[in-house]
Amino acid sequence: MFKEKLAGKAVLVTGGSSGIGLAVSTMLRECGATVGVFSNDRGQLDRMGPGFFCYCGDIRDGRAVREAADAFARRAGKIDGLVNCAGASRWCGLMAMSEEFWDLIYDVNVKGTFLAIQAVARHMIERKAGIIVNVASMSALKSGMPDASAYASSKWAIVGLSRNLHLELKPHGIRVGCLCPGSTRTPLHEAAGSPNIDEMLDPRDVARAVLFMLAAPPNGHVQLLAMPAMFEEWR
User: Which H or E element spans position 13?
Assistant: First the structure.
């Protein structure tokens, strides 16, 4: 479906070795794209198999992120797309929440997204072209959830970051969009025995939405895409 538009493209995927990120990385390769995978899990990267350029590092480490982006640009000869899937998904009530918990959520989800965009945008600006897709969450668009203040507000921040950076980078030919998927059947939910696991979105379904955004025509742009699971209310 997207092969003719994504074949030959060079796309870097953060958090690309598990969950939604792994589905995105795999489907991009199936479409003939050159794929760079950034992850902090060396074991998962070792299992990626041939055909991927893998980089191990902490998304909160600006130097590691820049070095990975530069290395991928050298290997691929360019960077056409960036998909930010790296994220921390944890829950805690207000009174039990420590500063360390809050900082972890924001450093991974918000700072990490910022660092990856900054590292890749330098290469895109040189070519005056590129598409960036930031994966946030439906929790950013809902009215609220108990014990989710750190997580949900960090995803709100990603939506706002995407909107503002789109305006800033648009003159350079770079489009920035945000995808807000609902509950997705990732290893994290499976290990936790989350309720409604069988009704959750499949990671490959979310990945198809990412590829749809990456395959946008030159004169079009998907700025914000909401994708709740059917059992979830959007209110």
Answer: strand 10-14
Apex CA 209: angle with CA 46 and CA 146, to 5°? 85
All domains in the chain, ordered by first residue: 3-227 (3.40.50.720)
Instruction: Give the pTM.
Output: 0.94
Count of Cβ atoms closer than 10 Å to residue 111 Cβ = 17
Is residue 116 within 8 A of residue 125, CB to CB? The reply is: no
High-pLDDT (> 90) share of the chain, %: 80
The verdict on whether 151 is a catalytic residue reads: yes
What values do phi and psi take at 91, rounded to 5?
A: -125, 140
Catalytic residue among 9, 21, 151, 211: 151
pLDDT in the model for residue 197 = 76
pLDDT at 191: 61
